[in-house]
Amino acid sequence: PSLSTFGCPLPSPRIVSSYPMNARALLACLLALSPLGAAERPNILLIVADDLGWSDVGWHGGFGKTPHMDKLVRTGAELDQHYVQPVCTPTRAALMSGRCPGRFGPQALSPSNLRAMPLGTTTLASALKSVGYRTHLAGKWHLGARPEWIPNAYGFDTSYGTLTGAADPWTHKYRKGNPYEDTWHRDGKIFREEGNATELIAAEALQRITQGGDQPWFMYVPFHAVHTPVDAPAEYKRPYDGVKFHDDPVKHESRLRMAAMVTQLDAKIGAFVAALERTGQREKTLIIFTSDNGGIESLQNAYVGDVPHSPFNSENDPLRGQKNTLYEGGTRVCAFANWPGKLKPSKVSAPLYVGDWMPTLAGLTGFQPSQDAKWDGLDRWKVLTGEDAAPSPRTIYIGHPQGRSIRHGDWKLIAMNKGKPQLFDIATDPYEKNDLAAQEPKRVDELRTLLAAESAKDDKVMPADLKGLPH
Predict the structure, then answer these.
(1) How many angstroms separate the CA atoms of 314 and 330, rounded?
(2) Do residues 373 and 98 lie in contact, with contact meaning Cβ atoms separated by under 8 Å?
(3) pLDDT of 100-148, one tens digit each?
């Protein structure tokens, strides 16, 4: 393709004639568009926790001991209003594509092992790969469990972990009798491996980020922690010796396993930071952390293995709701970004959306799509750095099979498929205690109009080739 295809200014004919129109010329043009320039393009370590609740972590005053993440929050940008989808597959689709997941069809709005995005979709991995990054995934994919839908088909040089939505931390298996029960893989090839899943995923990520070379890297680490089955090695339970989580011994043991898994997640992130420091990469690495949705407070274990049920699990207080709801407890999650010298210690209170990371990282690294990418997310780099300290009100639309929500400015409307809409002023009522729909009918109508416009962009029909396939 020509440079102009990518929106790059063409050099003079005399200069063009001095070199072939090859990938290096294109790459140099794209890098010139980065606000940082080629020399400052960061390594990107993108970490996603699974089902982590608002009050599971130390920096929110929760029960989990998270000293490493607490430090990253203190020294970086705490993302206080970071919104995601209320369940896993949709969040991952939005994160990878920069688009609301419903744009791809109804299969992308629910937890599913079907293909969420069409093959050929521009993803974070394929975008960064096109501008010179090596791209790796270690962890949970959950955007398609068949061999033709693996991460490698969407721009990742390597992939490792599970293709399905979850797996037992010890057996690495999915649900019993499911066609995708065996899901532990390397580059799409299923195999068996001993060890704890969180430890293995972290070890894979460490190997990739410390392998050396001059090429910048994108390391995507979607941990299974702290999704059910909830358990961690004994060493992560010891920090809680003497802590009594509940008078009921079964509930105490359940919360202890959850706390241990949170601490294990934190320890692995601490190991990443230590490795970056040891290898001289810390100053040139952007670390991004988010959960895929809010926590779930009580659940049963349906996966192949011996881990008990979790009757006393995650904590989202003081936010209302939990995973699989459109309230803040389901969609506003623990998140931060840290890059020494580039992101100052701050609390970013502007609303952000998980789909913002695609255009934000594209702008940061110089990636330009060859055609309209139809991103729903926004480039929020200036918001993260504080250069745009008071951004204009923006709209965040979240679709769900049972309803939809829309936030514009400080106002949020939840419209379930059944029942009356609910209206909240998040600025004055962040815990959604006061439904103002009856008092503000005009505002309800305005937000309903916005909601209808966004919903109209969704594809309501499942792709024909997915119909009848196992979920």
Answers:
(1) 12
(2) yes
(3) 999 999 999 999 999 999 999 999 999 999 999 999 999 999 999 999 9
